[in-house]
Amino acid sequence: MTDKLDKTPSGPADAAPEQVPPDIIRAIPVRHYGRWVSAVLVVAVLGALGYAFAQGNVRWATVTDKLFDSSILTGLWHTVLISVVSMAVGLALGVLFAVMRLSKNPVTSSVAWLYIWFFRGTPVYVQLLIWFNLALIFPILNLGFYKDYMTAVMTPFLAALLGLGLNEGAYMAEIVRAGIQSVDEGQTEASHALGMTQMQTMRRVVLPQSMRVIIPPTGNEFINMLKTSSLVVAVQYQDLLRSAQDVAATSFAVMEMLFVASIWYLALTSVFSVGQYYLERRFARGSLRALPPTPLERIKSNLLSLSNWRR
Amino acid sequence: MTAQPMVKAEGVHKSFGPAHILKGIDLEVAEGEVFCLIGPSGSGKSTFLRCINHLEQINAGRLYVDGDLVGYRQKGDKLYELKDSEVALKRRDIGMVFQRFNLFPHMTAVENVMEAPVQVKRESKAVARERALKLLDRVGLADKAGNYPSQLSGGQQQRVAIARALAMQPKLMLFDEPTSALDPELVGDVLDVMRGLAEDGMTMIVVTHEMGFAREVGDSLVFMDDGVVVEAGNPRDVLTNPQHDRTKSFLSKVL
């Protein structure tokens, strides 16, 4: 502080003799007693919570034992698989229905509206059960070229995929539509004025800019999907939660296995959050004068500010 | 000057729903001419400009660019709407500069200028980049080629926008109040670039509030009010010796 202020008033040479160094302010800093009190309180609550879990009847050895159990890892793989595939289906349907919703054709736009209305308006748990029990009303699936018993076609995986994917499509349609509409009309006009066609304008000008609006909620949707996929227990799909429950049923370690599942869900969501962050950075090009710091840079600056915390 | 006008309007009308914006515009713009459109806001001058490259569709009358009907094809006495791709083809030859610049924010300055030649004319990136850099140099921004629009001042953005339009080697340039969104001290740079273009013989239609520019650079001037052409002529005559009362009262407010 001091040397900075000393440097600035160096005026022109002929005005020098009258220069008096400025009187640097040395005030007593405000004491933030509130901060100390709240910090002590929070640490006390955390300590109590930790003590409670240490006293609780938790077999931590079982948690670490079963964390890499082969059936747990299989369930983990299934959770990742159904989430990724359902999200892919949701994205594809989302783009399709967003474009239909924005089209000038009243039939396609009403159908898109109806789709979104239905799949967003009913709980995903109910939708999963409907797909799973479809054989009750259509015992035989007949597509003309293909005919089979519905129970043979509607495997737990397919029921889970249809339930999660179609539901996700309705949410993604609204996200994509918002993204497309967020791009200023002047961009489309400028692109058209240069002689670019509708398709070129969409692909080169509108979609790249709408990605900035689309990606953050899509990342949210994906993290939600990782967790919502635990509902597929309802359709007998062998996901992470169901594997954990199966192990719990034989080992009587109910809470321990739920902890194991939680640890894996946290690990998955953390990994994908980091991925989302870097994706957002990539599409922020041009919209910000300077890109935001990466998490590592931010941790560094946070640690620095923590050491200056008392000021 | 050639016999065929670059732009010819015959009784052009345009309405947005119940709002009748253009009420029969007749005018001609010769090749190589700097044609200035002035008038109060809401007089329809920007709308008319947007009709020329078919960003707006006219409701009545005929509008020709370089002898071709804008937006339609005439067979016998029937008019057929042009397909989107045909409209896009016509727009290649008409450059447009907007009041709000409308640069593509996710591309650098040089990428903005290269975009249309590469995408529309299928030029190779190397060729397009070379010409883009020359154009940026021409508008005085050779050192800003790698900057994104958000890193440029308004005047710099508008000059990139002019370079972007020139990259398509248009035969006609439309300027829609190119300096109205700029800080006063940045207006001069943009006008200098436009003056240079005029000296090179570019046909330009300029909607503007810069009376000084109109007087110095303009070859013709039209004063529009309430959707009609009120007065037209040589800019120096119209600006110094307006005949019509509405022109007089407008000029007394802006000069």
UniProtKB/TrEMBL annotation, chain A:
UniProt keyword annotation of Thylakoid present: no
Localisation per UniProt entry: Cell membrane
Domain named ABC transmembrane type-1: residues: 76-276
Keywords: Amino-acid transport, Cell membrane, Membrane, Transmembrane, Transmembrane helix, Transport
Membrane topology: Multi-pass membrane protein
Main location: membrane
TM helices/strands, residue ranges: 36-54, 75-100, 112-137, 149-166, 257-279
Recorded coiled-coil stretches: none
Pfam hit, one: BPD_transp_1
Gene3D superfamilies: MetI-like (1.10.3720.10)
PANTHER family (UniProt xref): L-CYSTINE TRANSPORT SYSTEM PERMEASE PROTEIN TCYL, MEMBRANE COMPONENT OF AMINO ACID ABC TRANSPORTER
Family per similarity comment: Belongs to the binding-protein-dependent transport system permease family.
Protein name (Swiss-Prot/TrEMBL): Permease
UniProtKB/TrEMBL annotation, chain B:
InterPro entries referenced in this protein's UniProt entry, alphabetically: AAA+_ATPase, ABC_ATPase_HisP-typ, ABC_transporter-like_ATP-bd, ABC_transporter-like_CS, MetN_ABC_transporter-like, P-loop_NTPase
Reactions this protein catalyses: a polar amino acid(out) + ATP + H2O = a polar amino acid(in) + ADP + phosphate + H(+)
UniProt keyword list: ATP-binding, Hydrolase, Nucleotide-binding, Transport
PROSITE patterns: ABC_TRANSPORTER_1, ABC_TRANSPORTER_2
Enzyme Commission number, as recorded: 7.4.2.1
Superkingdom assignment: Bacteria
Pfam families in the cross-refs: ABC_tran
Residue span, ABC transporter domain: 7-251
Record GO terms (molecular function): ATP binding; ATP hydrolysis activity; ATPase-coupled polar amino acid-transporter activity
The keyword Transcription is assigned to this record: no
Family matches, as SUPFAM superfamilies: P-loop containing nucleoside triphosphate hydrolases
Family: Belongs to the ABC transporter superfamily.
PANTHER family: AMINO ACID IMPORT ATP-BINDING PROTEIN, PHOSPHONATES IMPORT ATP-BINDING PROTEIN PHNC
Protein name (record): ABC-type polar-amino-acid transporter
